[in-house]
Amino acid sequence: MIETVVVTGGGTGGHLKVADAFIDELFKRGINIIFIGSSNGQDKFWFENDIRIKEKYFLDTKGVVNKKGFGKIASLFNIFSKTIYCLNLYFKYKIKVVISVGGFSAAPATFASILKRDCNLYIHEQNSKMGKLNELTSKFATEVFSSFDDNSLVKDYPVSNEFFNSSRVREKVKTIAFFGGSQGAVCINDFALKVASKLNEMGIKIIHQTGKNDFERVKNEYKRLNINADVFDFSKEIPLKMSKADFAVSRAGASTLWELCANHLPTLFVPYKYAASDHQYYNAKVLKDKNLCFLQREDELSEDYFFEALNSDIHKISIELISSINPNATSQIVDIILKKS
Ligand SMILES: CC(=O)N[C@H]1[C@@H](OP(=O)(O)OP(=O)(O)OC[C@H]2O[C@@H](n3ccc(=O)[nH]c3=O)[C@H](O)[C@@H]2O)O[C@H](CO)[C@@H](O)[C@@H]1O
């Protein structure tokens, strides 16, 4: 009987949203949760005041991949010392199960799970191309779950039920949503402002998530254009915002991508071009190959392509999105984890 589970990982919203799904499921089952993340990145913002989590540790860890020379050595030493710290925690709490959702925040707690011999490591890889940490640690994992891998025991993504519950089949574009991922995307913000007046003339309403850094500028631009759009920097009510929209323009971060599918919302994806191994492009390409979305690289993003997409058969795409993902992936994954441990 597993009493306490460690959930680790984070950095950005995509990883943290999946961590949140696991925390929710474990909490419902009366299992104690220890969260181990980083003090750098968004981990504290998401979980610092979360009452579902029994113990929280935000360690001072940073990414190693883009560092060189002394910086790399210092980061590696830092991860090593934090790994020992986690290992001591595991002995204290008799930890036998660690769930990693990846990202640099996950490194020490994941390495510690490998060093503790009676501990099982489970990994959820969100993207179509495996992250560096998961590449390194997955061979030590008891199981790796991924929606892009045919060998995964559960292929559906851990999307929260709210996105399924508020889903509907779209008929006609009356409202458009622009989503920039957890941090916002200047290129999507600029594109939205470029097409806003035409959308307004067409009677199409605009919902726009800008990200924190670009919020004031975008809000003021809509004001200058005299357009009454629903503009916000970050919202906990994304399911509601999505359900109101009939079409979306979005980054192709994995969590957002599968939430859009669960909501049956036809989307034009504009992948973040600097994502590791171009994974956002390949995330969206899996849907594009099945004609379930529109896809354009940010350097090629054109108004013509966008308006053509708006005028296409979005009803058909919306219907076909119904079978692209099933609910309850998180509970299926947790069932497997508890059975194997
Ligand atoms: C720049 C970068 O490297 N981004 C990565 C990051 O994306 P990013 O952090 O943007 O992640 P995703 O798009 O996958 O997910 C964002 C999550 O935040 C939520 N949300 C977003 C906006 C908002 O206002 N409110 C809100 O709650 C969304 O509903 C979603 O659940 O992690 C993803 C999952 O590993 C990767 O696929 C992305 O490539």
UniProtKB/TrEMBL annotation:
Pathway: Cell wall biogenesis; peptidoglycan biosynthesis. Its EC number is 2.4.1.227. GO terms for molecular function: undecaprenyldiphospho-muramoylpentapeptide beta-N-acetylglucosaminyltransferase activity. It is found in: Cell membrane. InterPro entries: GlcNAc_MurG, Glyco_trans_28_C, GlycoTrans_28_N. It is a peripheral membrane protein. Keywords: Cell cycle, Cell division, Cell membrane, Cell shape, Cell wall biogenesis/degradation, Glycosyltransferase, Membrane, Peptidoglycan synthesis, Transferase. Residues 5-145 form the Glycosyltransferase family 28 N-terminal domain. UDP-N-acetyl-alpha-D-glucosamine binds at residues 12-14, 127, 182, 280. Pfam families: Glyco_tran_28_C, Glyco_transf_28. The keyword Transferase applies. It comes from the Bacteria. Cell wall formation. Catalyzes the transfer of a GlcNAc subunit on undecaprenyl-pyrophosphoryl-MurNAc-pentapeptide (lipid intermediate I) to form undecaprenyl-pyrophosphoryl-MurNAc-(pentapeptide)GlcNAc (lipid intermediate II). Belongs to the glycosyltransferase 28 family. MurG subfamily. This is UDP-N-acetylglucosamine--N-acetylmuramyl-(pentapeptide) pyrophosphoryl-undecaprenol N-acetylglucosamine transferase.
